[in-house]
Fold this sequence. Notes:
globular, 7 helices, 18% strand, 5-stranded antiparallel sheet
Amino acid sequence: MYHTVIHSASIPVTTYIEQYRDAEKFIRFCKECNRYDRCWACPPFDFDTTEYLIGYDNAYIIGIKIILDDETRQQPDMETSKIIARQIIEEVRAKVDKRLLTLEKSYPGSKSFFAGTCINCPPETCTRIKGAPCIHPDKIRYSLEAMGFDIGKTASELLQTELKWSTTPLLPEYFTLVSGFFTNYKIDDFSSEIDFQTSRL
Length: 201
């Protein structure tokens, strides 16, 4: 069905904020999403997102390219296409997110940013909808886009890959998941820290 290729890059956090963040622009996109104010991983937040980001020296950006085989790309209709895409992305996300949480323990005080919204609970069951606290506070992390970062620019300039989309039942040749890891540690061989193979043939 697919295999993965991992890309990574490092950039000072201050530079990443200055050159790749436009909170006002990207919060508008968040407001158009049906998970806005209905998911604890999504805006609006009850804290200052800039304060949440500062205080770290290094930003490590991780791009997981999920490359689909021709058979998987061919789907009969849009609904099936969306279901298959979501299943594949969440399957890979589960492994990537787990690895990032492990890295937080290896590098105390560091902070992970997941590739997209929360996948711990089905979308319409998030406790935020009813005004109740998150039931997985130890597992939830925010995405870079929720913090106002430009993921398209991040992928193209830092990871040398373009994001792919599809408006037909034919799935794109690949998906790209962009995660982040902010830390005060200097990790010389960060790629080895996230080196894992995820595939389903």
